[in-house]
Each structure stands twice: as C-alpha cells, then as structure tokens.
C-alpha cells in the first residue's frame, strides 16, 4: 500500500509505481495487480517536514516476490512524495486453480450439483401453486 501526498500529480505517482515495479522485477518478483483508490480522507493528520496532511492518494500494489522484499523496499522511507507505505505478507496463499485441490474440488463440485437439483425442485413447486390459484378464482366466480 502506498499513501501519496494529495498534491502529487498522476505522472509522478506513475513514475514512483514504475520504479517500485522495476525494483520488484530486478529481485525476481512480479507485480500482479495495481489498484488506485483515489483521494482518501485520513483519520488523523500525518506530519511531514512540509506540513500536516489530512488527505492522501491511496494505491495498492499486489506482487509476488521473495521474502526479503521488505528490507529491499526500505528506500521508500526517504521518498518525499510518500506519506506512508505498508507491506502486507500473504503466506501460503493459493491463486487460481491451485485454490482447489483435487479432492476438495470434487466435493465442492458435487455440492454445487446437488444444490442445483434442489433449486429445480423449488421452481416446480411454484408452478403448482399457480394452478391452485387459478382453481380458487373459478370457485369465487361461481
């Protein structure tokens, strides 16, 4: 997560993110996702040498990198455009098809199939109620 000062232009933010991405790539890592949350209001002011900031531009970079990346990103502490930066480690996280093992995948699919069959039975019951309603209307007309 990168919290950038609110007055920094988009080109400068892009340059900063590009530099972080290149640094990750040089250490055999990959940036997999980048999200911008725009300008956010902060819960408290962050004091820097050029003033106190109550707003910031929030960016999230998701990356796969070696565990030593935390030490290698320490240069961001000296970056004057940043208010704060945060590295969150997700260990043993499975992505994509690795998310479901073979055994787990089969049981999940069987649960899905059985729930689909149950939904069909519920729909048929609804049609029966419609027929009963039509019969009741005929009885009221007599």
The pLDDT mean sits at 78
Instruction: Give, in spatial order, the strands making up the sheet with the most strands.
Output: 2-3-1-4
Q: In one word, what is the shape?
A: globular
Q: Outline the low-pLDDT stretches.
A: none
Please tally the β strands and state the result: 4
Percent helix: 40-55%
Q: How far apart are the first and last residues' alpha carbons, in Å?
A: 73 Å
Structural class: alpha+beta
How would a crystallographer describe the biggest sheet?
4 strands, antiparallel
SSE string, helices as H and strands as E: EHEEHEH
Radius of gyration: 28 Å
Proportion of beta-strand residues: 25-35%
Summed up, the helix count is: 3
Q: Could you please describe the fold and organization of this structure?
A:
The chain is α+β, with helices and mostly antiparallel strands. Strands 2-3-1-4 form a four-stranded antiparallel sheet. A hairpin with a 2-residue loop joins strand 2 and strand 3. The mean pLDDT is 78.
What are the defining features of this structure?
single chain, 4 strands
Summarize the helices and strands and which ones pair or pack.
Blueprint: E1 2-4, H1 10-26, E2 30-48, E3 51-64, H2 69-72, E4 82-85, H3 102-141
Antiparallel strand pairs: 1-3, 1-4, 2-3
Concise account of the structure shown:
The protein is α+β, with helices and mostly antiparallel strands and 142 residues long.
């Amino acid at each position: 997560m990168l919290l950038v000062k609110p007055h920094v232009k988009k080109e400068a933010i892009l340059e900063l993110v590009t530099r972080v991405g290149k640094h990750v790539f040089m250490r055999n890592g990959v940036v997999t996702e980048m999200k911008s949350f725009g300008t956010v209001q902060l819960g408290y002011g962050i004091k820097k040498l050029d003033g106190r900031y109550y707003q910031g531009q929030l960016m999230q970079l998701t990356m796969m990198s070696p565990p030593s990346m935390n030490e290698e990103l320490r240069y961001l502490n000296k970056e004057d455009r940043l208010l704060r930066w945060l590295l969150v480690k997700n260990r043993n996280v499975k992505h994509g098809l690795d998310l479901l093992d073979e055994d787990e995948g089969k049981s999940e699919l069987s649960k899905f199939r059985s729930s689909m069959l149950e939904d069909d039975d519920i729909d048929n019951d609804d049609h029966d109620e419609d027929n009963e309603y039509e019969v009741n209307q005929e009885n009221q007309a007599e």
